Predict the structure.
Amino acid sequence: MLTTILNFLKFLGFLLTLPVLISVTGNFVEVLRDIPSEGMDYFLRGAGSLFILHLFILEIRPVYEFGQKTVATILKFSPALASPVTLILPIYCFFFLVVLHLAQFWFDYPSLIKFCLFAVGFSLSLHLVYTADALRGSGKGDLTNYYFSMSLIYILDLLLVLIWLDLIFENMPVSKLAGMMWSDASQMYHMIYKHLFVWR
């Protein structure tokens, strides 16, 4: 009985995160569009390359697992913290964001910036694809837990990368970006509420 209630709450939580997920994704795309020098194209090429590599050529799970072990080693002082952080933190993506930050402000080297954007797209997709695969494998058919956990990880990862890219390329203040995401999500919540509970 308790398991059924928990599964229902997780599924409800997943449904409630959908407007936030859509809002974050939409604003993520908008920030990518504002990156100069075809930045969005290089990011999408990186993401697409990972999917092609994963689906048609070979899996690079050992690369993902090495990154997970690295984060776990850094956080070995707190095993309870290491477990969720390894799932959430896209370590390779953050490394390339640091290099991108340096390339943008210190070196101003266009080819390095383009490579970093490609690598950010590739490594973010790497993290999301293999984290989703790990959650499916550990869930033993528990789809409600998988959907809820993966939606939260997706939202947090995109938010972190989105804010960092916005700071690097100075597209707009983070406060304005947060306000846009909140406004988009609020509108979707309001629309859902009207359709479900407001009778005409």
User: Anything to note?
Assistant: Residues 37-185 form one domain. The CA atoms of residues 173 and 183 lie 15 Å apart. The chain has one domain: 37-185.
